[in-house]
Amino acid sequence: MKKIAFLFPGVGSQYVGMSKTLYDNFKIFKETLDEAGDILKIDFASLSFSKDKKEELDRLDIAQLTLLTFSTAAYRVYMQEIGIRPHYCMGHSLGEYSALCSAGVIKFPDALQLVRQRGSILKEVSAGIDGTMMWVINLDNKIVEDVCQQASKPGQEIYVSAYDSPTQTSISGHTAVLMKTAKELEQKGAIVYPLKLSGPFHSPLMKEASERMKAVLRQYEYKNPQYPVIANRDAQPYTDAGSVVDNLSLQLISPISWRPSVEYLLQQKVEVAIEIGPKNVLKFLMAKNSDAIRVYTTDNQKDLESISNDLLIKEDEYLRIIGKCLGAAVSTKNRNDNAEEYEQKVIKPYRRIESYYKEFSEKGKAPRKDQVKEAMELLGAILLAKKVPQQEYSYWTENVLGNKFINF
Q1: In terms of CB atoms within 10 Å, which end of the chain has fewer, N or C?
Q2: % residues pLDDT > 70 (the chain)
Q3: Terminal CA-CA length for the chain
Q4: Whole-angstrom Cα distance, residue 307 to residue 82?
């Protein structure tokens, strides 16, 4: 079975009209926006769907709250309509909060309050620093690193603040040295874009913000993740609930390790990623990192239909799965010489699967989902009774589903 990762976007993915078809067609999406609106006293629908609110939507503090809310709403729709749980998840900068929500580490109301305080802290601290951020595209990470290290001096500091792909980074620092360095990077072939942000984020210049955020984070309770969440600061999974405070506070002074996080997913043999939230920024970034992971988006209803068609087993395929269970049962070598055990744990389960297949073939009807589940469980028992090696066991149990998923 394919391994799946969830990707949650950060600031820059917001736009007027985002996820409107999800809002219009799924009650749970609207309820999530209402829930967040009641807590924060913000009308997220009006804010996000009105053209005259674009300037407000793009404010850093508002954009963060909106993306957390919309990503959580999209996640809830996805789980309701698709339901395939991920093997891993990760978020880009602010998206790490959305990832932790989806994994059950932070309660949604708590995440809203944390992100609101995060926005206030970033705004206050960055107001006292003459600094900003820029994207650097089409230049190798190492070259950008070297240029920044050579240019940085006490009082005029500059750092790589995100490793997004082998040839895309962000840089943060004091404005004067940032502008000077941008020209040098352009001479080396880079394309440099100023970011519409208000501070040198994800760099040591935000030390005060990191310390203040750490104190805020300590006031909340966290749970262990339901599935691994990859941290921005070191591209490693959260170990437990206790790692939340350090990871999220250090995130503010550490570069975003997106490229190393993608490498981690590749090492774990992840083949599919689903971007949970507005736009397709992370799908674009994945294409710049690797073509080995296929990325789906969830910004509209058609996106969900595409995921369903490609990844979910439909009812008209249920009989085929039962037939493949029969095929797997007879195709594997028996290594169990106990005749009585073979009769009880191989022959009888096989006949049960066979009876299902014959019954529904003759009726021309599809089996129920619970009958498919039983057939797969019986196959598992047969393979164990035949003492099939683990690698072969995994091959057959995955082969039955044909790299698709069924939610039992």
Answers
A1: C
A2: 100
A3: 15
A4: 8
Q: What is the mean pLDDT of the chain?
A: 96
Domain count of the fold of the chain:
3
Q: Is 92 an annotated catalytic residue? A: no
pTM attached to this predicted model: 0.93
Burial class of residue 342 in the structure, from the number of CB atoms within 10 Å of its CB (0-12 exposed, 13-18 middle, 19+ buried): middle
> Pairing relation of β-strands 270-275 and 294-297?
parallel
Q: Tell me which of 102, 202, 243, 261 is the catalytic residue.
A: 202
Instruction: Give the chain's length.
Output: 408
Q: What single letter denotes the amino acid at residue 395?
A: Y
For residue 327, what is the DSSP state?
A: H
Query: CA-CA distance, 137 to 163, in Å (whole number)?
Result: 11
Beta-sheet strands, E only, within 41-197: 88-91, 131-137, 158-165, 168-174, 191-194
pLDDT tens string 124-172: 999 999 999 999 999 999 999 999 999 999 999 999 999 999 999 999 9
Catalytic residue among 93, 126, 243, 249: 93
Q: Is the dihedral of CA 118, 120, 125, 130 positive or negative?
A: positive
Task: Output Rg (C-alpha) for the chain, integer angstroms.
Answer: 25
Which two three-digit tokens encode residue 348? 């009888």
Of 279, 311, 343, which residue constitutes the final position of a domain? 311
**392/254 same-domain check:** no
- What is the pLDDT at residue 195? 86
Residues 155 and 295 in one domain: no
